[in-house]
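Whiteboard transcription, Tuesday session. T.W. wrote the structure tokens on the left side:
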């Protein structure tokens, strides 16, 4: 019994070290790619300042009386996290092309630990890029208290976990970088534009409203918006207001299912 306990403790310590090393590798990769950091900040700022200012006078319905840039701010944060989370899994395709993924898979460590390390690392990178944008809040009229900042970070972390896990599932089936980029573009753009990140979800045509409701990113964006804005317009089903706990459950369920699928796919990867 003592020998079995020691064996389990050794396996646990080895897997925790694996998760930590894969997580650190993702952070080092980000540090060595300053262009990724710049683009991850510049693009959301461009949307916020240019789109928010240009369409502010046109989009006045469904924002609950909020200035459009204020309404757009949490959506842009969520959009930044969605984009970064999905593209964080590009390292899997990159490692496969250069043969490093095979070396990781034949190492005497759990493949579950490898997937968890990728998910935690990609999610951390995505949230770090989103945190940088929070400093813009006072300049566009968003009043963030300490409590709201922590609630917003919680929502971003949950969204990053779900979308990074989803990205890992997609990347685990891709053999070439070109295929990965094409598939991600097809997945990411509808997910963002049907989530309510850019425009209010009130008074939409029935078919478009139905698409926004089945988009799991919609619930993550709603969670972030309600965390950041005191008078935000919540997601509704007709006259029924979607509670915050349902937002959390939908995003958490997506992340848990995608993580389980990713682990299963990695178990079958040669």
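and on the right, the sequence the group agreed on:
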């Amino acid at each position: 019994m003592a020998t079995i306990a020691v064996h389990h403790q050794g396996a646990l310590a080895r897997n925790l070290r694996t998760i930590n090393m894969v997580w650190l590798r993702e952070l080092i990769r980000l540090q060595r790619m300053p262009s990724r950091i710049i683009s991850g900040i510049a693009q959301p700022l461009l949307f916020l300042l240019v789109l928010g200012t240009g369409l502010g006078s046109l989009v006045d319905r469904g924002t609950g009386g909020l200035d459009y840039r204020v309404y757009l701010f949490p959506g842009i944060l969520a959009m930044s996290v969605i984009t970064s989370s999905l593209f964080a899994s590009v390292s899997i395709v990159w490692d496969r092309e250069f043969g490093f993924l095979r070396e990781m898979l034949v190492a005497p460590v759990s493949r579950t630990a490898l997937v968890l390390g990728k998910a935690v690392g990609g999610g951390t990178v995505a949230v770090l890029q989103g945190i940088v944008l929070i400093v813009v809040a006072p300049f566009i009229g968003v009043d963030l208290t300490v409590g709201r900042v922590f609630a917003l970070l919680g929502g971003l972390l949950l969204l990053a976990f779900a979308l990074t896990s989803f990205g890992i599932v997609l990347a685990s089936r891709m053999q070439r970088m070109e295929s990965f980029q094409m598939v991600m573009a097809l997945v990411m753009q509808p997910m963002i534009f049907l989530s309510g990140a850019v425009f209010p979800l009130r008074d939409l045509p029935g078919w478009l409203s139905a698409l926004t409701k089945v988009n799991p990113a919609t619930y993550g964006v709603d969670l972030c918006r309600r965390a950041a804005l005191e008078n935000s317009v919540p997601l509704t089903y007709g006259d029924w207001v979607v509670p915050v706990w349902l937002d959390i459950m939908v995003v958490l369920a997506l992340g848990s299912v995608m993580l389980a699928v990713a682990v299963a796919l990695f178990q079958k990867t040669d």
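Someone added at the bottom: Residues 2-268 form one domain.
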